[in-house]
Each structure stands twice: as structure tokens, then as C-alpha cells.
Amino acid sequence: MALSDIARKLENTINRVGTKRATEAGWHPAVTGYYGYGDADRVRVLARVLMQGDEPKTEAQRGFRQFFTVQVADIPVTITAGSQTVHARTNDNGYIDVPIRDHGLEPGWQKVSIEVEGGEPAFADVLVLERGTKYGLISDIDDTVMVTMLPRALIAAYNSWFLRTNARKAVPGMSEFYGELRQKFGQDMPVFYLSTGAWNTFPALDSFMTEHDFPRGPMLLTDWGPTPTGMFRSGQEHKKIQLRNLVIDFPDIHWILVGDDGQHDPLTYGNFVAEHPDRVTFVAIRQLTPGEHVLAHGTATPIESGTSFRPVPWIEGEDGFELIKQIPAM
């Protein structure tokens, strides 16, 4: 048996024991709704079911508290989106990822009701895109909009586990850059945040985006831990899959891709452009300083420069203000 299989079995056992003990302590299942998305034909509803007690939460808690959760596996849920009601169950880690067709929801941000067995009804927000939406923005989070210096182990641990969730800093000028893009390409241009960060950090990330005036948008995060093929999930693979899903889900949208050169964004985006040159309007890469590169991966220069094949405009700058000056004329 592979080490990853052993780890997954151990994780599932811990979850079952944790759920049982939390229930005996008077806790109950509670739904945490994430931001889903879709169009007039289908919406993707994202949420998670965790055990919840009576301990009050503070907005500016230490980062590590976000990871002390008891997820509820294989529990029945009922989801109502507009005129449609569907029944589903959570996966092994308590997640809900359910597509709902023919929902009848109007364009814009809408609420979807989620009921869980033994818990209170809750809501998840979904962004329903207008028919004919032409442009969309896909943005990395770590070191693109938020200064995190990931994934260098010690710095990552400090930022994610010990730094208070309201103490993280925004990359200068990036919210202004996104504002300029929406002025140019339409105020209703959807923004999708694509990150290798854990779903546990969603509430803190959402508060950060609001506080620093970033556009509200669906966040496509991931779940840390063992998989059927390895001990840890691949961040690169996660981004590739989500990019591919967005291209499939929205075949008429032309994308603006925004990331940084601290890790693999230039290569991931470069490969995506090579495969779908007709679906990308341009690429914007935030360049880390030499000091940030050292903290991010141990050397003072980017570890990857991406592909040299660039059939679409490609701009680079140290912050959002530099990127604003280079927005391509369309």
C-alpha cells in the first residue's frame, strides 16, 4: 500500500472520530458557502460542511485557527438554486461541488440555499454571468494581489499559521490595476481568483479582498493533504485543471491572465496561451523583487520564465502601477 493511501485512510479515520466526538460534545453540522459561478444554463455550487460548536470566532484570528476544523463526510445535503432543488452528499473531506442546470436565476450575484441533515439552513453565493459576456479576468492570489512570499516553508508557515488574518498586505497598485481593466473591458467583467491556497482560508481571503478594494469574484482554491497519487496536491495541476474548466464552461469568453514570477505562473500561463491563443486577450505578470524571490524559492531570480512563444500581448511590472502603464490598446 502506498504511503499516500495510508495517509488518506488515517485522515478519514481522524475525520470520523472527530465528527463523532464533536457530536457527543453538542456540536452540529454547519455549511460554509463559497463563491460559485455559472451562466443562464448552469451554476456550480461550492461549499463545505464542518462541525460547529458554540465558541465565538473573531475576525482577526491567528492563521492556524483556520485549519483546526472537523469536516463531515458523506452527509446528505439539499441544494436549491432558483427553480431547481437537487440532493447530494459531501465528499470525504466535507466538500460540495455540484452543478445545477436550468436554475432560472437572474444574472449577477445570487444566493443558493443549502440544507444539511442535522444543521441549520445556510446560503452560498453564485455569480451568474450575463449572456454575451466577452471578457473575463483570472488572477493568482499569493504574491500577485497579496504579499505572502509563498511557498518557502518557514515564511509560508508564518504567514499562514501565525500572522493574524487581517495583517496581510496588498501588492501596491494591483487593486487599481484591476479597476483600470474593468474600466476598459467592462465593469461587469467577471474576476476569478485561482490559487493553490487552502479552502480553510476562504473567509480571511474574502475579507482581505473587500478591505483592499479588489473586485468580488469566485475563488478556486484547493484542499491540502494526500491524494490517490501522492502525499500532497500539485498546485500546478490544480491551476491547469481550473483554467481548462473555465475555458470549457465559458467558450465565448476571452481571458486576461494575471500572475507573478515567484513560481510557476509564467510557465502555466504560457502553456495555456500556446494551447488556446484565441481565448487569451493578454497576460500580466507581477515581477517579484530579488529579495522576494529569495524568500519565495531561494534564489534571487525567477525559477521559470515561461514559454518564448507568446502570440498574445505579455506585460510585466513590479507592481500594479507599472502594469497599468502597459495595458494593451485593444
UniProtKB/TrEMBL annotation:
GO MF entries: phosphatidate phosphatase activity
Domain Phosphatidate phosphatase APP1 catalytic: 136-287
UniProt cross-references to Pfam families, sorted A to Z: APP1_cat (PF09949)
Taxonomy, superkingdom: Bacteria
Coiled coil: none
Family annotation (InterPro entries): APP1_cat, Mg2+_PAP
Name of this protein: Phosphatidate phosphatase APP1 catalytic domain-containing protein
Organism: Corynebacterium kalinowskii
